[in-house]
Amino acid sequence: MNLTAVWAIYKFEMQRFFRTLLQSFLSPVLSTSLYFVVFGAAIGSRIQEVEGVSYGAFIVPGLVMLSVITQAISNASFGIYFPKFTGTIYELLSAPVNFLEIVMGYVGAAATKALFIGIVILLTATFFIDLQVAHPVAMVVFLLLTCLSFALLGFIIGIWAGNFEQLQLVPLLIVTPLIFLGGSFYSISMLPPVWQTVTLFNPVVYLISGFRWSFFGLADVPIGWSLLAIAGFTALCIAVIWWIFKTGWRIRS
Amino acid sequence: MSAILSIRDLRKTYDGGFEALKGVTLDIEKGEILALLGPNGAGKTTLISMVCGITTISDGQVTVDGHDIQAEFRAARSLIGLVPQEIALQPFETVLNTVRFSRGLFGKSRDDAHIERVLRKLSLWDKKDTQITALSGGMKRRVLIAKALSHEPRVLFLDEPTAGVDVELRRDMWGMVADLKADGVTIILTTHYIEEAEAIADRVGVINKGELLLVQDKDTLMAQMGKKQIEVQLAETLNAIPPVLSDFGLRLGAGGNSLIYTYDTKGERTGITGLLNAVSNAGLTLRDVQTRQSSLEDIFVDLVAGGTA
Fold first, then answer.
1. N or C: which end of chain B has fewer CB within 10 A?
2. Do A91 and B91 touch (CB under 8 A)?
3. pTM as predicted
4. Are B122 and B176 in contact (CB under 8 A)?
5. Which residues of A fall within a CB distance of 8 Å from B84?
6. Which tens digits make up the pLDDT trace of B261-292?
7. How far apart are CA A71 and CA A119, in angstroms?
């Protein structure tokens, strides 16, 4: 294992993040505050409580997931797409590193950035509501796995993308709708029965439900299912990336 | 001397069936400088890309210092440095960061003294904190070289290193290549500039249409294939070669007042004395005599055109 190389990639990617630290820090704080103002104060005043939890607190796990997933995907996809775009990928391909080390470097950095944003949002939330965490270990595991698995997905998107438009396509057309319809801002028990069934095909439902369970002990789907979903998704992404490097798809001619 | 890079029957066929490389076999000795010449699309970059791991191998085998580039890719690749043809750099990074990154990527522990040496040698030290995007084209090319040298390679590939650079940088680069050779680094460079191969290479390989037409010691090549010409300028103007000179295979120069004689430098008898005597006997008056040696470029053009291959 060429850990020096993993560290080199990781550090290089993180430096990019730290160069724009203010931006990286301010935008999640601002967007979270806006969500709290709009959903927590305006709408929340009419909803009051969801299953015994104040609406302001109820949306926190969903808000964190929304940002973490978006950030993990965009950081990882950009991280690997940019070397492809500038041509510097020649160096990665000619270096004494295997696919796992490249992935560890890029995905590790993207996941770290997403985690950082997630923590910033959680801290911001404490200014608006009284946040309790019922299962702290589960909360950390869910957060880490989400950062990791969606960074893996972002990596795949970055390899697949042939231009900057395609880089935005999957997050915009697929991921954002899935997150919004995944119960970020509502409990799926609030939906009509038919839509409750349909929504179970949305993988993000399992993530948000599990994550919310770690805070309040209440979930839309059994916690086992949530863990299985996130673990399965991570495994699937790793398998796809392994195949990409084995065949050289879109990277080696 | 032993081969540090050994290429056996290397082939590349693309999905569409295009054969970019048709079975190249080549041994490169430790510490030598090999220049690969060939027109655009000849397969030079394909060959380099396959050795470096950027392009997949269709068939054949390559070893670097005894390490197979596929089975033992770590050992093989850590010995190789590559300076690509196209300028490919992350625009918003600083020079120092970019070069440090390369060293780390190749698994070498941080060595600020080495990086400083490399940057100073390439006149980049003053620019170490400058963003790549603010550098000139020539400077960017130097950064690419610094990246390749950052991890102390034993084999260095320079893919058209002086394409589009000014004379000063070209001279600098030739000097740097000589220094690297003195340190025992093996260098393989591709170039369009024949004078570059002539100036710095020990051996010259000519590639065309995916085939290695020839690999030879540069001086031997020049001596073997180099032809010399003598142009005998006359006081008189001729309409045709005088019959007494017909045995020499002469050509009448433009304007009719010179005779051009081509001879082989490897021949034991060049026939120059005989020619000059014959010219004198024919009653012609010599005004001047000039000789000209054919360059590597002439040899190259001949080979690629299929003339002497």
1. N
2. no
3. 0.84
4. yes
5. 87, 90
6. 888 766 677 788 888 888 888 888 888 988 88
7. 12
Residues of B in contact with A252 (CB under 8 A): 54-56
Q: Count how many residues are written for chain B.
A: 309
CB contact under 8 A, A15 and B103: no
**Side chain identity at residue B94, one-letter code:** T
DSSP secondary structure string, B150-161?
HT--SEEEEEST
Query: Least CB-CB distance to A88: which of B75, B80, B88?
Result: B88
Q: What is the DSSP string of chain B?
A: --EEEEEEEEEEE-TTS-EEEEEEEEEEETT-EEEEE--TTSSHHHHHHHHHTSS--SEEEEEETTEETTTTHHHHHTTEEEE-SS----TTSBHHHHHHHHHHHTTPPP-HHHHHHHHHHTT-GGGTTSBGGGS-HHHHHHHHHHHHHHT--SEEEEESTTTT--HHHHHHHHHHHHHHHHTT-EEEEEES-HHHHHHH-SEEEEEETTEEEEEEEHHHHHHHH-EEEEEEEESS--SS--GGGGGG--EEPGGGSEEEEEEETTSS---HHHHHHHHHHTT--EEEEEEEEPPHHHHHHHHHTTS--
User: Tens digits of per-residue pLDDT, B38-81?
Assistant: 888 889 999 999 999 999 999 999 999 999 999 999 999 999 99
The residues of chain A scoring below 50 in pLDDT are none
ipTM metric: 0.87
Instruction: Average the pLDDT over each of A52-61, A85-94, B83-92, B116-125 and give the range with the smallest value.
Output: A52-61
Q: What is the pLDDT of residues A24-47, one digit of tens each?
A: 778 878 888 888 888 777 777 777
Q: Look at A96 and B108 and tell me if their CB atoms are within 8 Å.
A: no
Domain ranges across chain A: 25-42+53-247
Which among B105, B109, B143 is the top mutation candidate for probing chain A, defined by the most A β-carbons within 10 Å of its own β-carbon?
B105
Residue B309: pLDDT over 50: no
| A8:B103 CB<8 A | yes
Q: What is the DSSP letter of A174?
A: I
End-to-end CA distance of chain A: 25
